[in-house]
Amino acid sequence: xxxxxxxxxxxxxxxxxxxxxxxxxxxxxxxxxxxxxxxxxxxxxxxxxxxxxxxxxxxxxxxxxxxxxxxxxxxxxxxxxxxxxxxxxxxxxxxxxxxxxxxxxxxxxxxxxxxxxxxxxxxxxxxxxxxxxxxxxxxxxxxxxxxxxxxxxxxxxxxxxxxxxxxxxxxxxxxxxxxxxxxxxxxxxxxxxxxx
Length: 196
Fold this sequence. Notes:
Number of domains: 1
Helix content: 10-25%
Strand content: 25-35%
Number of strands: 11
Largest sheet: 8 strands, antiparallel
CATH topology: Cyclophilin
CATH class: Mainly Beta
């Protein structure tokens, strides 16, 4: 138990780092150990980072980019989970036509998670086809590891869930995914990670 607590503490230290001003800065590390400040990644005019990730499925690949400035803590956590291979092999635990597909539950029941709750980062972004947001319960700060991808415009979800990403390639794959399909892997495309 002592080792688990120690490892969890080390994980939290590597996930959150404090700057000299005391403001929390979200940091992840490249495979070579180089640290990356999430909030300093380059973004386009719409707020999407140049940094991307690829979701491999049995139906093909889906590439998405991150809203690093709108949801920095959430993006850092998702990146950390991707790096730890948390999502590899997980099932699509929810697939509702013309609504969403959802994954990120290691139990496959729709009730599981990584055990680390995230503070909500609701923002002004809107749910369009391919928007990626955090699934949560009735408590606004209950998001964990489960995320969804919208299959259409969903204005009734705007401002109620943390939007952290947008699919930029593979939108056609979304409609092929069904409940029970397996995520082969999600990988960060580090060649796209450059700072301002």
